[in-house]
Protein 1
Amino acid sequence: MTHRFPRTTALLLAAALVVPGLSMAQDKPTIGVVEFKNETSAGWWGSSVGWELSGMLSNELASTKKFRVVERNKLQSVMEEQNLGMSGRVTSGTGAQIGKLTGAQYLVMGTVTAYEENTAGSGGGLSFKGISVGGNKSEAYIAVDIRVVDSTSGEIAYSRTIEGRSKGGGLRLGLSRGGFGGSLANQKKTPAGKAIRGALVLISDYLECEMVKRDSCIRKFEKAEEKRRQSNRDTLDLDG
């Protein structure tokens, strides 16, 4: 028996053969960004900042058009219902439950593990985390540990430490796609705000690279990780 496909279907099948990956164009990862956690003494951190950073990263990821992003409000209500808002712990069982309730295949979790900010006087200079500070410039550094958890298995699928830096009056990484609001609104033009923006842009780029592109772009992040680890080793040597 001879089967005839509708003209539109036949064209799509032909295009998929000519352009690799076209048939998977609609298969975007569905992700949810949970509340960020903080392990630093950063003065700008407040009770609502964790979810504000979650919303900002969600906006960054949605703007790439490479992901389906679960609405922050939906994810927040589920997390609070599961009593995970304060613990920040997502085990295999709870991760699967959150994934089922929100439709998220992956849960993105961020923890701010380092934050430093300094202002140098005109007569001297300071240095922290490899950043030289001189004149009357203010500079800031932030490190965020990112974990991407498979909500089905509860296993960590991807992880990386992402760093953001502000230098002088400019943003090192370009403009963020999202804006500041809530408790962070007054940090928009501060060194802290610029470092946060830089980190969020890089986190978005990393997730797109690791989860969607899956090509040589990952080498850039591997090099940054190698540099970060070497810097930490050097610091340990100095402390010793």
Note: Residues 26-231 form a domain with the Rossmann fold fold (CATH 3.40.50.10610).
Protein 2
Amino acid sequence: MAESRRSLWKRAFWALRHPFRAYRILRRRLVYRMALCRLRGRLRRLEVNSDEWLVLQERLGGVGGELGQALRAVFYAHSLGRCGAGCRFQPGVVMILPQRIELGDDVRMNRGVYIVAQEKVSIGNHVLIGPYVHINSGNHRFEDPTVPIVDQGKALEPIIIEDDVWIAAHAVITAGSRIGRGSVVMAGAVVSGTVEPYSVVGGVPARLVRRRGERPAMA
């Protein structure tokens, strides 16, 4: 109790010595709280994945700084099928059909990540998703050359990304893929299938480069 009082007096003394800085900090906190309250109120009246929801997602995707991080955290915590603790979303993240997306704890999505959950997309804990990664759990069918591709429908399969995975920039994860725990998907790779745990994969289509813990092969 005495310690908290001392801390309170220190803050008050600092505010008296630096009134303009204290005012700016207080104003910023009030703006944050008002913005978060307004967003929560709006989300209560909003249908997830509606046109209005999609417009709001785009607008929030353009908000930078700490405020943007806080607003997107509230937005996706409300909208996703599951959103664990400590998830962070950089500007430009887009999720389509978010009610089919489940995130574990401490998932980090970098700028421009694009997820289309035509079927369930499950992402584990402590996953890093790099800039402009594309994840889509649906593919167009194209087997019959006598029928236009647009009329052949889609093949939908869930995507599972296990714990402690890093998906680097511009990678593509296609329907039916399963990325094992502790794996790394190199930049620009296209994953279509299963990645074994603790693997490093790269290329188009993605193939095993090495196992984590092994030294890279010398040229």
Note: The first strand starts at residue 82 and ends at 83.
Protein 3
Amino acid sequence: MDSLFGLSFFEADDFLKLLTRLLLNTFFLLLIVRYLYYNITRRKDYLFTYLLIGTTVFLLSFLLESVKIQLGFALGLFAVFGILRYRTQQIPIKEMTYLFIVIGLSIVNALANKKISYAELLLTNGVIYLMAFLLEKQFILKHESTKNIRYEKIEMIKPQNYKALVEDLEERTGLKINRVEIGNIDFSKDIAKIRIYYYDQQNDINLADNEGNLPAAS
């Protein structure tokens, strides 16, 4: 069967090209997202998101490759996904950088034409992975992590009580805290949303639940 409803049923060369590019893209996505990013952050939510976005962008770009707006199409994807943020919270700058890498590599791997060899594609993917690896593992000796906390000692959020606030959080979390940011404050419930920053070389602990809630102060 040569065609089905006006579409070619099977083209060996095109199928082999899609499969080869898909395997190449998936391999480097796994290297960057699963074996580099996830091993450092342990963020399963972003692992899920990055892999699906990378694969979807690749397939979308590859299947629309014949459209004569390749450059505009690629820039449009960067614009749409590059400003993507979830309704619940903004994406941190580091996660945005990994999102940019995932989208960029997927577009490059999908839209590379006959003037670009597979050796060039491998070099491009390899250089980006190597840069990310060196920055994460070698050049940046201390990786700053964050946790969001609901804090019940509302009187401690005053600027003059900052030192006492940090000491209280360190005692209750067991972490050596670098800095603290005060977010939304609910005076009706005497609760403040706080973000703490600390270096993840320390033995991290699971704070109460996934939302980072501390036990109520006595």
Note: Strands lie at 3-4, 7-8, 144-151, 177-186, 191-199.
